[in-house]
């Protein structure tokens, strides 16, 4: 029987007829079938065949007698259609039946079977799909990055507002148009979509818009089940600002470095204009290292003989560090007995030892909180204090002598020593681990004999300094200057400074002459002075000019003590008075 000829005009939803053939809907989870008046299956979809065995020519009454009853009721015309629940294989289904009337002799029914709850699930799925679509829509519209969606023919399906902004276009100007045209018209200089369609792969491009903005563009293909590209999704990120920021950053970095160098120079100049005298390359290098060390918080180890200025350098580091507004404390580990060094440094609790204050006492570390502590002569620390110092350097915590409470402070440690610490480590007198902890930034301050260029400016500085403080106006005669510049200064700057103080305090006249020098230096002068009998003594060291000058100085000194006026001296020596005046001035005698 051909039902194609008997399908009614009010054909049920889902049933269609094409080229004279009847086609049933074919959803995966819904069985559709057509039966004739006797209950024979005339047509069925895949689900009906596979899930229920309702093949063509099978008899519904035999397979599912329970189903046949409501179907038959519709066929014989008791009702036009019916919907009822049926149970098959322990599951509940909804059976929908609709009658066909193709003529007097052609009667039948179109049936569908759908598992109960399936409809609700579909509705739920639909709502979920709508929600997700709305969310996606919001994400796409609010994205800061541009988004283009094109179809397989490179036609623009949509763009988001960010793309409109970045490219300076309106969606309606491009949607529906091919990317090829848009490139030709200069909307963009190249198209990721065309590249993706050409290669079938993800593509990254650098693109320039017609407004001159630079974009990083990524095109991604979207495939269907058969592996064909159905969409191309293109994201674009505006890197114009990033590029500008990057350039600005580099410029600022360069400027910052320039400023830093200038600041360092200014700091060096300031140091040199104050009490730190440094003219020699060796000392200028030390100052440079000190200024650099001041910019970080690492431990510094100052090495050098006694009196070279290690204390001064330590103060300098503190002064130019971010700790400048907190205290700078100094402890000389060699000047105090072991036990006192420990309690001075770490403090002590009430009753820690006999003679201790009742209230206890904070140590230098606590007092210097936020600042710097200089441990002078650190090589003299006892093993016990070394261990305690090491712990402190490790975690910034310590306990007062006689206490149990762990305290923490923020202090920078600078250590100084005039003994070679590595030797002390080798002979087991100094802990190696502590040595490494202290030796983070080592700075060696050279002795004065290795930087003789500093001697003259130091003499000048200290003679002026003590003259000022003693209310005098003293200066060194050239011969004294010569002696002092050549002297070795085993006690380094400290010795030079003390010598200047003594010369200013003890010399008779305004000009400090060789007779004012302490004995040991006077002896040195005598040894070098040419004798009257043999004026070329010492010529090897001094040279002709110096020998002559020394003689000249002595002659004018002698003349001045014998003949009080320049006029008289000129007469005796048979030279002009102006020459006498010049020479007296030269030798500091006028
Ligand atoms: N470059 C310098 N310019 C001016 N004065 C200096 C210079 N170097 C050191 N002095 C002075 O010399 C004296 C000794 O310096 P300082 O105490 O810093 O030496 P030190 O190396 O720490 O000695 P010690 O190891 O004995 O403690 C100080 O009064 C200091 O002001």
UniProtKB/TrEMBL annotation:
- Start and end residues of each PAC domain: 199-251
Alphabetized, the UniProt keywords read:
Aromatic hydrocarbons catabolism, ATP-binding, DNA-binding, Nucleotide-binding, Transcription, Transcription regulation
Q: Which residues form the Sigma-54 factor interaction domain?
A: 276-505
Tree of life domain = Bacteria
Q: Which Pfam families match?
A: AAA_lid_14, HTH_50, PAS_9, Sigma54_activat
Q: Matching CDD domains, A to Z? A: AAA, PAS
Residue ranges of the PAS domain? 132-185
Biological process terms in GO annotation: regulation of DNA-templated transcription
GO MF: ATP binding; DNA binding
Q: Which PANTHER family match?
A: C4-DICARBOXYLATE TRANSPORT TRANSCRIPTIONAL REGULATORY PROTEIN DCTD, TRANSCRIPTIONAL REGULATORY PROTEIN
Q: Quote the protein name from its UniProt record.
A: HTH-type transcriptional regulatory protein TyrR
Q: Which organism is it from?
A: Thermodesulforhabdus norvegica
């Amino acid at each position: 029987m051909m039902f194609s000829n008997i399908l009614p005009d009010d054909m049920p939803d889902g049933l269609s007829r094409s080229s004279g053939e009847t086609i049933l809907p074919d959803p995966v989870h819904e069985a559709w079938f057509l039966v004739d008046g006797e209950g024979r299956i005339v047509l069925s979809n895949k689900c009906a065949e596979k899930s229920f065995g309702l093949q063509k020519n099978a008899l519904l009454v035999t397979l599912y007698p329970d189903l046949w009853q409501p179907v038959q009721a519709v066929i014989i015309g008791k009702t036009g259609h019916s919907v009822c629940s049926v149970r098959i294989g322990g599951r509940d289904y909804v059976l929908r039946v609709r009658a066909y009337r193709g003529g007097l002799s052609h009667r039948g029914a179109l049936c569908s079977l759908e598992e109960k709850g399936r409809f609700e699930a579909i509705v739920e799925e639909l709502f979920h799909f709508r929600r997700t679509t709305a969310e996606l829509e919001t994400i796409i519209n609010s994205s800061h990055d541009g988004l283009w969606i094109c179809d397989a023919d490179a036609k623009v399906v949509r763009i988001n507002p960010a793309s409109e902004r970045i490219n300076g276009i309106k969606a309606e100007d491009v949607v529906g148009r091919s990317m090829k045209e848009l490139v030709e018209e200069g909307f963009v200089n190249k198209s990721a979509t065309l590249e993706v369609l050409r290669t079938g792969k993800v593509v990254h491009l650098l693109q320039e818009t017609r407004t001159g903005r630079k974009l990083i563009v990524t095109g991604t293909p979207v495939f269907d089940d058969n592996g064909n590209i159905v969409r191309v999704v293109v994201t674009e990120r505006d890197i114009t600002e990033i590029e500008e920021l990057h350039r600005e950053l580099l410029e600022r970095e360069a400027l910052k470095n320039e400023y830093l160098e200038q600041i360092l120079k200014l700091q060096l100049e300031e140091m040199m204009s104050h009490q730190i005298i440094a003219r020699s390359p060796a000392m200028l290098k030390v100052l440079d290292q000190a200024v650099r060390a001041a910019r970080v918080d690492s431990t510094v180890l100052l090495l050098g003989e006694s009196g070279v200025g290690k204390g001064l350098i330590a103060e300098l580091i503190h002064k130019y560090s971010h700790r400048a507004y907190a205290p700078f404390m100094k402890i000389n580990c060699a000047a105090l007995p072991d036990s006192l060094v420990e309690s001075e440094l770490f403090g002590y609790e009430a009753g820690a030892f006999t003679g201790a204050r009742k209230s206890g006492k904070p140590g230098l570390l606590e007092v210097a909180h936020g600042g710097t502590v200089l441990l002078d002569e650190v090589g003299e620390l006892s093993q016990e204090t070394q261990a305690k110092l090491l712990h402190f350097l490790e975690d910034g915590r310590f306990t007062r002598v006689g206490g149990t409470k762990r305290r923490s402070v923020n202090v920078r440690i600078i250590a100084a020593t005039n003994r070679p610490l590595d030797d002390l480590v080798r002979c087991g007198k100094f802990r190696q681990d502590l040595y490494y902890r202290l030796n983070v930034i080592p700075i060696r301050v050279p002795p004065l004999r290795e930087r003789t260029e500093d001697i003259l400016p130091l003499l000048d500085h200290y003679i002026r300094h003590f003259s000022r403080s003693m209310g005098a106006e003293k200066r060194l005669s050239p011969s004294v200057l010569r002696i002092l510049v050549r002297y070795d200064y085993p006690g380094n700057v400290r010795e030079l400074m003390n010598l200047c103080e003594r010369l200013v305090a003890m010399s008779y006249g305004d000009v400090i002459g060789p007779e004012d020098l302490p004995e040991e230096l006077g002896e040195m002068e005598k040894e070098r002075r040419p004798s009257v009998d043999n004026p070329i003594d010492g010529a090897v060291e001094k040279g002709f000019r110096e020998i002559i000058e020394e003689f000249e100085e002595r002659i004018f000194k002698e003349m001045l003590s014998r003949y009080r006026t320049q006029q008289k001296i000129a007469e005796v020596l048979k030279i002009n008075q102006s020459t006498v005046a010049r020479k007296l001035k030269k030798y500091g005698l006028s």
